[in-house]
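A reminder before we start the practical. When you read a complex entry, don't treat the lines as separate problems. The point of joint prediction is that each chain is placed relative to the others, so the output describes one connected object in space. Small molecules and nucleic acid strands, if listed, are placed in the same frame. In the example below there are two entries. Take a minute to note the order of the lines before looking further.
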Amino acid sequence: MSATSTGAIEPAGKPPRRLQASSPRYGEKAIHALLALCGLLSVLTTTAIVVSLIGPTIGFFEVVPIGDFLFGTDWTPQFQPPSFGVLAIVAGTLNVTLWGMLFAVPIGLGSAIYLSEYARPRVRKTLKPVLEILAGIPTVAIGFFAVSFILPEIIQPLWPDGLLGGAVGKPFMALAAGLGIGLMIVPIIASLSEDAMSAVPRGLREGAYAMGATKMEVATRVVFPAALSGIVASIVLAISRALGETMIVVLAAGSTPHFTFNPVEAIQAMTSYIAVTATGDIPAGSIDYKSVFAVGTLLFLITLVMNMISIRLVRKYREVYE
Amino acid sequence: MASDASVPRNRLAVAGARATTKAMLSEQPRADVIRNTLFAGLLLLSILIALAGLFALVIQAFAKGHSALSLDLFTNPPSTINPDQAGFRPAIIGSLELIAGVILFVVPIGIGAALYLEEYADRSRWWNRAIEINIQNLAAVPSIIYGILGLAFIVRGPLDLGFILAAGSLTLALLVLPMVIIAAREAIRAVPDSIRQGSLALGATKWQTIRTQVLPASVPGIATGVILAVSRALGETAPLLLVGATVFVTFDPTPFSPDGYSALPVQIFNYAVRPQDEFQTLAAAGILVMLVVLLAMNSFAIWLRNRYEQRW
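Here is the predicted structure of the whole assembly.
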C-alpha cells in the first residue's frame, strides 16, 4: 500500500501516519542474527568434517598411491611392507550390508504394508510405537545380541554342514553382523515406507476397489507403485545406515580383513577398521593414523551419495501428494 | 405419512443389497481368496518377526545378565581381576555428565536453528535451501565419522581440548543436533499461521510472537525430539571410542579433567569383547540397565508426542 492512499483516509488536519515501526527494534535484528548463526553452525559442522578428513587423507595418498588404495584387495597395515588395498574392507562392509538388506527389506516392507493397509487403527497405534522403540535400541546391545544369540543359537544350528566352509566353531561371521544390522534397519524401512504409503490419497485406493480389485491388488499394484519414491528413499537411507554402522560389525563380524562375500567368514568392515585402529593413543601423523582418515573419507563420500539420493526421492513424493 | 411406507421399503432395499453383495462375493474366485489370505498372513508374519527380534534381545539380556543385577553394579568401579565385584559406577556417572553437556548444547542451538529455518529463512534463497539439505545429510552421516571429526577437530586440531569428557560431550552433541533441529522444525511448522497473524495484528513484534505464541505451542514436539536425541546420544558408542573414552576409569570422572573418562556403552562394549562368562554376564547386565533407561525415555517421548499432538 502506498503512502498516498493511507493519507487519503486520514481525517483532515492530522499528518498521515507512517507505516514503519516507530522504533528501529535493534533487539529483533540481533535475535534474527543469533538464530541465523545457529542455522549456520550445521554448515560449519559439515565444513569441519570435510576439513578434518581432507588433510590427513592427502598426506596418506602422498605415501600410498591412490590406485593401490582403491583397487588393491589386500588390507594388511601391520605387515612390512604394509598393503592398503581398501577393497578388502569395502567387501567386508558390503558383505555385511547385503545380508542385512536381504533380511530387512522384505520384513520392513511387509511390516509397512501391514501397518498402512491391513492393520486396524488401534493395532497400528500400538504397533508403530513399538517398532519405533526398536529403532532406539543402542547398537552395542544389538551387536552383543548378534554375537551371543543370533550366531550360536540361530545361525550355527540352522546352517547346513559344509556349505561354504560350515558355520560351526566360528566366533565371528559376516552373517551374524548382517542379521543384527537387519534388525537395526527394519524400523527405518518400516516407518518411512509406512509414511509414504499413508500419504497416498484414498481416492486411488477407492478407484481400484470400484474397478473390482482385491485388497492385495490394491496394496501391491496401486499403493506400492504410488509410494515407490518414498519406499526407495527409505531403503537407500537404510543402506546408508548399514554401511556406516560400527558397533554391530565390531562385535559380531570380527576384525580380519578378507576380500570375500562368504557369509560365514569373519571379515573386517570399513567402520570397524576405523574403530579398532583409532582408539587409544595412536600417534598423530603415522601412516596408520592417516589411513583411518582415508577410509573415513571414502565412507563419508559413499554415504553422502546415498543420502543425497534419498533426500531427492523423499522430496519427490512430498511434492506429488502433500 | 410417507415414513410408514418407506420403512419396509428401506428394509427391502437393504436386504436386496445384502443378497447382491453376498452373491457377488461368493463368486470371488477361490484362488483370489487364498492368495489374499496368504498375502495378509505373510505381512503379519513379517511384523511379528521384527517384534520377536526385539523381545528376544530384551529376554536374552535379562537371561544372561540378571544374576549380576545388584546395587554393586551401580556403586562399584570396573575391574578385570574381580569380575564379581566389578560395576559401572564411573561409566554411569560419565554418561550422565556427557548427556548433561549434550542437553546444554543441543537445546538452545537446535531450537535456534529450527526457528531460523521455519520463521526467518527465505526459502527462495539458495543458501537457506543449502542449510536445509545439509542438515538432512548430517542426520545420516555415520556416527564413526563424527568420531573422526571429534578426534581431528575437537580433541586435537583447532579446538585442541585433549581427551577430556567435555570433548566427548561436544562430539555427541554435534552428532544428535540434526535430529533435534528436524524434530523442532516439524513441531514449529505444525503451529498454524493464523496464530502468528493474530499475534502480529495485535501489535506484537516477530520475536514476541515467537516467544509467547509459537514456542509454547510447539514445546511437546520439541521435547519429544530432544528426548529421542538424548537417548540416541546415551547409547552411542563408536564416536566415543575415538575421542578418548577409556574403560578402566576407577574414579568418578569430571568434565574437564585430563585423567580420562568412561561411558556406559563403552564399558559394556569392553566387557562384551571378553570371552569369559563373568564378563559376558556383566555386559548383559549393563545392557539391561541401559535398555531400561532408554526404553523408559523413548516410551515417555512417544507418549508425550501422542498425548499433546494438537490438531488445530
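Discuss with your neighbour: Residues 1-7 of chain A have pLDDT under 50 and may be disordered. What might explain this?
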